[in-house]
Amino acid sequence: MAGVSEDREVPTPQARSRDWPARLLRGGCGALSGLITGFTALGVAELVASAVRPESSPVTVVGGAVIDLTPPALKDFAVRNFGTDDKLVLQLGILALLALFAMAVGVAAPRHRLSGSAAVLVFGAIGAVAAVSRPDGGLLDALPSVVGALVASAVLYTLAGRLSPRPRSAAAAGGDGTFDRRGFVIAATAAVAASAGAGVLGRRLNASGAADAVASRAGAVLPKPASPARAVPAGADLGIRGLSSFTTSNKDFYRVDTALVVPRVDATAWRLRIHGKGVARPLTFGYDDLLRRELIERDITLTCVSNEVGGPYVGNARWIGVRLADLLREAGVRPPSRGGPADQIVARSVDGMTIGSPVETVMDGRDAMLALGMNGEPLPFDHGFPVRMLVPGLYGYVSACKWLQDLEITTFAEYDAYWVKRDWSKEAPIKTESRIDTPRPFASPKPGRVPVAGVAWAQHRGIARVEVRVDGGDWHPAKLAAEDTRDTWRQWVWEWPATSGNHTLEVRATDRDGHTQTSERVGTVPDGATGWHSVVVAVT
User: Fold this and answer.
1) CB atoms < 10 A from the CB of 125, how many?
2) Residue 448 — φ and ψ, nearest 5°?
3) 2 pLDDT band (50/70/90 cuts)?
4) DSSP per-residue letters across 96-151
5) What is the rounded distance in angstroms from the CA atom of residue 367 to the CA atom of residue 298?
6) Which of 86, 87, 96, 148 could form a disulfide with 45 if both were Cys (CB 3.0 to 4.6 A apart)?
7) How many other CB atoms are there within 10 angstroms of residue 255's CB atom?
8) pLDDT at 244
9) pLDDT at residue 5 above 50?
């Protein structure tokens, strides 16, 4: 083995006992060399990714692959328990596993230099495979993982050589008879400095690329809509403490998607293509093209299919955009009911996400739109700037593609979108649901009149009635707030004559089609959760 003397004396047990601090030090330095190796791989990959695209960095592509391979139930668990922090948790988990792997390889590498270096290359190969297997992946996306692994492998080989056991006669050469400490420190310092420089430079280059996107959003001006939303009626917001406001602010609006890195799209370079089966005239639009069209403004409530009963993944905002049906008609698209050959619109995001929506639903007269603005400003990056899709009455995973760049007209028989491939339903109208916002679970209100209040939604059908009951007793009608439109949620309140003790409050809603939400409790897969939301309180 390189660096190991052939005529080294076999140490006695007493010598081994005396050398344990040195061996412990060498093991610690080995673990450190592994961490430096991992740091090198990520730093170099970050620099290379700045020349390819930010989404090609190893952590991003491996994280995306993990999301793709995660069973729906586990993915649902992550969303339920970590909320919008689920991606941060995933990234931290990947980095933690990388650190443990790197430390293990680093400890073994001084005695197995070639094997250790090869292990680093294998890890790089995993990143490369993950990169090209992404929905939007290409061969160039593998480059950051490959180059990062090659450089990191060379660094580990070098550091491991400095840690290889040496004969005691080498002590006079600057070591203590165990390994080249001075050489290790110099090599490790150089590797850390170079890797940090590469990482910082890569991040700055990526940031400069994102600056164009930021500037394009800052310069975007939303025209006055040709069809403005009507004023929110007086009494639509009951103003009760603890009750969700009628309009959800942009910063509080939920975000559920698979993007580990939020795309920063330059609106001046953005293009949307409409093509596919039954498209007589393929069309391409730029951002300014859409701004010059007739715009509509509507209040629309969005709901995520991952929302558990009583969950937070629902919000209401005022959107401005272009009617999607108008664009489809210009392209010559006809719904199936009028002889059209296609029944699915596949929306593609810049991050490779695919979302399938029914052509018939989009063109049935509802306010399906390509949204450009949210609550009076251009879409935030987190919510799809420059353009996203919205279809009232459908869960987001079959209607609300963010960072939109392509609309392909096809059939459900010919193509399964991203979530359908993962056991979710092809078509998913939003179910009639209601939620208690106040009192909170395990609250301790005083006896007397206690407002029990919340929101109910049945987008594109509207809410007709909300009822509340206590401890499984009779249902009591709640007072409904004024209705804005049938595409928005509706607040409600019931004045409860609370008495001392522990109590269970339950709520159910009935939509304008006469359907009352079921008591049967089922999970979110495959087409949304059902059941009555309940809250336990202790009146004292």
Assistant:
1) 14
2) 120, -155
3) very low
4) HHHHHHHHHHHHHGGG-HHHHHHHHHHHHHHHHHHHHHSTT--GGGGHHHHHHHHH
5) 8
6) 148
7) 17
8) 98
9) no
